[in-house]
Structure prediction request, 120 residues.
Amino acid sequence: MITFRNTEYRCASEITLELISGKWKILILSYLAENTFRFHELQKLMPGTTQKMLTAQLRDLEKDGLIVRKVYPVAPPKVEYYLSEYGSRLIPMLKMLCEYGADYMANFATDPVRKEDQHA
Prediction:
């Protein structure tokens, strides 16, 4: 057992999964892998999210050290988000998850239970 932040985990991979779990976190990280964005730019890229949800997901990612929130001292306030070093290290894994998902869909799109997977 691993104890981290007052939570017990059976495996360190559970920590990683917890960091990226959430409806919008993987998408946010994927967008930030390509560019720095302001809040409203991210919101436009993800029309299905609410302002409250996006704010919560960004705060979680920032708290966990995966993204950086940079506030510029101007009026009106200008805030940008970009990946931290630890966030950047996640990108190859996220790409692998995407590739796996695409491959899975291609192989199971019309036949969710393959014959060789069925037990007699």
